[in-house]
């Protein structure tokens, strides 16, 4: 089981879109995937067609030790893709467990317990909120690696050093095994010269960490969540879906290397 946390403290950079579509693309090639929605907004849950009323057991229950991974994971319309949905309860979590022992290890403990009982998943992806709060720290403490979506815009690199520093701190204190999985550039608009410059700058600055695959800005990708479907189910042929399928094969290759190292 490989655990990948999708994080960036900026909102609107494509975390949730990447989480849903990467999870779907991995499932489509036969990987057993669990997506954990850690954002109180629940966009990943909605985007996978799980209505609020169907979120009886949620990531909040997992983090407060009220439910196990098996109890919280529900099937989605995508074969081989399960989801632990989120609810607004997550907003109170930080206060609730702020003085608890092992509060940063709630997710890691839950996943390890799950792995001991049964190995149901090949990949676990975590969709983080736009913040470096206890939820994101939990996701990093539980992860093998962190995948960072960066939007192809002028301020793309702003905030990246803070994020990388947080990864470093988690590695020093909570999870020495944590790798930077890579950076995926999102919402690329080929008609915009600035976007191409951003791609060059990010590659120059971050080198090999940046995935070859760049996700294009694509209206089909932004429409899909309102139908409760991953873009890959909504319109598999659109350029955005094709890019996420290409990203999935890069992720599988990179995970093999990281797991072997
Ligand atoms: P985050 O989870 O980082 O806040 P989202 O994945 O929710 O970001 O994306 C922010 C907005 O941008 C959403 O409305 C989403 O539909 C849209 N979006 C994301 N990726 C693309 C894309 N490749 N093409 C077009 N719209 C996109
Ligand atoms: Mg999101």
Give structural notes:
43% of the residues lie in helices and 17% in strands. It has 261 residues and is an alpha/beta fold. It has one domain: P-loop containing nucleotide triphosphate hydrolases (Rossmann fold, 3-Layer(aba) Sandwich), CATH 3.40.50. The chain has an eight-stranded mixed β-sheet with strand order 3-4-2-5-1-6-7-8, with helices on both faces. Helix 1 (15-28) packs across helix 12 (239-260). The protein is globular. The structure holds adenosine-5'-diphosphate and magnesium ion. Adenosine-5'-diphosphate (ADP) binds next to helix 1, strand 7 and helix 10.
What's the helix and strand layout?
Elements: E1 2-6, H1 15-28, E2 33-37, H2 43-47, H3 59-63, H4 69-72, E3 74-75, E4 81-84, H5 93-97, H6 106-117, E5 123-127, H7 134-141, E6 145-151, H8 160-173, E7 179-188, H9 193-206, E8 210-216, H10 219-223, H11 231-234, H12 239-260
Parallel strand pairs: 1-5, 1-6, 2-4, 2-5, 6-7, 7-8
Antiparallel strand pairs: 3-4
Helix pairs in contact: 1-12
The protein binds adenosine-5'-diphosphate (ADP) and magnesium ion.
Share of helix, binned: 40-55%
Bound molecules: adenosine-5'-diphosphate, magnesium ion
At the fold tier of CATH, the topology name is: Rossmann fold
CATH architectural label: 3-Layer(aba) Sandwich
Largest sheet: 8 strands, mixed
Low-confidence stretches: none
Average pLDDT rating = 95
Q: Label the overall shape.
A: globular
Strand order of the largest sheet: 3-4-2-5-1-6-7-8
Order of helices and strands: EHEHHHEEHHEHEHEHEHHH
Number of strands: 8
Radius of gyration (CA) equals 17 Å
Distance between the termini: 15 Å
- Name the CATH superfamily classification: P-loop containing nucleotide triphosphate hydrolases
Domain AAA: 1-179
Protein name: Chromosome partitioning protein ParA
Pfam families: AAA_31
Function: Involved in chromosome partition. Localize to both poles of the predivisional cell following completion of DNA replication.
